[in-house]
């Protein structure tokens, strides 16, 4: 029996980076006999074709897959659509449909890129995991725009229930238990009711575990990620705060194009995507960094298919590419390698390592 992977390339650089990730996946010896890929239309490109950014055929395909690989969605072409028709709403709907409540974003700097980080690292390391609640909070709350007192007013509601928080904290504790057993809850408990509930739930949860916890307001966390990134082990946080801290983390490791993510559900179905967006400013130029997507394939193999050795082969191949300075323009500027060249180099490394 073969595993079924649903592939959603999406918009902008989505197609280019997914192409390289697939190349790398099938460079692993024997992988063609183990995996079937099926592609589905998703995002702005699906809206153009079917007047729906998350067509029913895509929904069915995703729900019967063993795992889903996604590029990125959105772009200026679809910015004026009503919110509910936008590619980004389709992305939220995909995550909700798959019930992937926990978004895991490992943030690690490659040793050979330390001198390229915008922050002074000297002997310090960057190696932490962001555990971001993914299917609740302000992105999913009631929203509306109305006229009040002769002017337009808009509202986005942030809602969290205990159970929505508990399952995210449980995952963070589980991940921390395999690392340094330290979690930092990032919130805004000095002003938000939802954050106060996050603190209460987290306090109760860690009481029964060996995990150490500290609490940090998100504004301070944004600063500490720059000043003391080596102090973090596992950051657990709500949907929007995790989104923001993620891009900041991308910047300090050298580029947002380097970071992968795994979004997991209780059922075991997983969604794998880089942390960045569709980068319309560089789309179609063969210069996007494919590494975040390639490393997302490694996470897919590890978490959804339990192929740890194959996941490690991809990670080692990426490390070799970076150590050998096969770097893209977002990291080293004009002399950077193209998306295809980087994908091919890593695929070749994978071939050698898996033989
Ligand atoms: N998961 C997803 O599908 C996401 C979609 N978006 C959507 O993407 C579109 C663009 O959003 P932005 O705010 O510009 O964020 P973005 O992440 O697409 O781009 C931000 C900056 O990072 C650069 N960048 C991103 N990925 C890169 C890569 N792999 N290699 C080299 N450079 C890279 C871009 O060129 C740009 O300068 C919007 O429509 C947005 O809503 C944004 C974030 C996530
Ligand atoms: C549509 C956005 C919520 C996507 C995003 O920025 C992310 O998940 O990092
Ligand atoms: Mg984001």
Automatic annotation (TrEMBL):
It is an enzyme of class 1 (oxidoreductase). GO terms for biological process: L-leucine biosynthetic process. GO terms for cellular component: cytosol. Binds 1 Mg(2+) or Mn(2+) ion per subunit. Coiled coil: none annotated. SMART domains: Iso_dh. Pathway: Amino-acid biosynthesis; L-leucine biosynthesis; L-leucine from 3-methyl-2-oxobutanoate: step 3/4. It catalyses: (2R,3S)-3-isopropylmalate + NAD(+) = 4-methyl-2-oxopentanoate + CO2 + NADH. The keyword Oxidoreductase applies. InterPro entries: IsoCit/isopropylmalate_DH_CS, IsoPropMal-DH-like_dom, Isopropylmalate_DH. Keywords: Amino-acid biosynthesis, Branched-chain amino acid biosynthesis, Leucine biosynthesis, Magnesium, Manganese, Metal-binding, NAD, Oxidoreductase. GO terms for molecular function: 3-isopropylmalate dehydrogenase activity; magnesium ion binding; NAD binding. Its cofactor is Mn(2+); Mg(2+). Its EC number is 1.1.1.85. Transmembrane segments: none annotated. Belongs to the isocitrate and isopropylmalate dehydrogenases family. LeuB type 1 subfamily. PANTHER family: 3-ISOPROPYLMALATE DEHYDROGENASE (PTHR42979:SF1). Catalyzes the oxidation of 3-carboxy-2-hydroxy-4-methylpentanoate (3-isopropylmalate) to 3-carboxy-4-methyl-2-oxopentanoate. The product decarboxylates to 4-methyl-2 oxopentanoate. Homodimer. This is 3-isopropylmalate dehydrogenase. It comes from Helicovermis profundi.
């Amino acid at each position: 029996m073969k595993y079924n992977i649903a592939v959603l390339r999406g918009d902008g650089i989505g197609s280019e980076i997914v192409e390289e990730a697939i190349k790398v996946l099938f460079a692993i010896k024997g992988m063609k006999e183990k995996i079937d890929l099926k592609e589905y239309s998703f995002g702005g490109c699906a809206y153009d074709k079917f007047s729906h950014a998350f067509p029913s055929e895509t929904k069915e395909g995703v729900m019967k897959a063993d795992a889903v690989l996604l590029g990125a969605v959105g772009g200026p072409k679809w910015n004026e659509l009503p919110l509910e028709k936008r590619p980004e709403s389709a992305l939220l709907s995909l995550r909700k449909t798959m019930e992937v409540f926990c978004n895991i974003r490992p943030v690690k700097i490659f040793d050979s890129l330390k001198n390229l980080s915008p922050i002074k690292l000297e002997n310090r390391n960057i190696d932490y995991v962001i555990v971001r609640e993914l299917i609740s909070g302000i992105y999913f709350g009631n929203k509306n725009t109305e006229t009040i007192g002769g002017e337009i007013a808009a509202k986005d509601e942030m809602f969290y229930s205990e159970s929505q928080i508990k399952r995210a904290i449980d995952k963070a504790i589980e991940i921390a238990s395999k690392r340094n057993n330290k979690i930092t809850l990032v919130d805004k408990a000095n002003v938000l009711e939802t954050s106060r509930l996050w603190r209460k739930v987290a306090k109760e949860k860690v009481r029964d575990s060996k995990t150490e916890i500290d609490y940090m307001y998100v504004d301070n966390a944004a600063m500490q990620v720059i000043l003391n990134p080596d102090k973090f082990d596992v950051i657990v946080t709500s949907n929007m705060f995790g989104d923001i801290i993620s891009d900041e983390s991308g910047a300090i490791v050298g580029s947002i194009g380097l970071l992968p993510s795994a979004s997991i559900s209780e059922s075991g179905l997983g969604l794998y995507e880089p942390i960045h967006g569709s980068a319309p400013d560089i789309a179609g130029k063969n210069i996007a960094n494919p590494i975040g997507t390639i490393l997302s394939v490694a996470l897919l193999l590890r978490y959804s298919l339990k192929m740890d050795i194959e996941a490690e082969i991809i990670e080692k191949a990426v490390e070799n590419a970076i150590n050998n300075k096969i770097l893209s323009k977002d990291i080293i500027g004009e002399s950077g390698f193209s998306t295809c060249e980087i994908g091919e180099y890593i695929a070749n490394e994978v071939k050698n390592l898996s033989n």
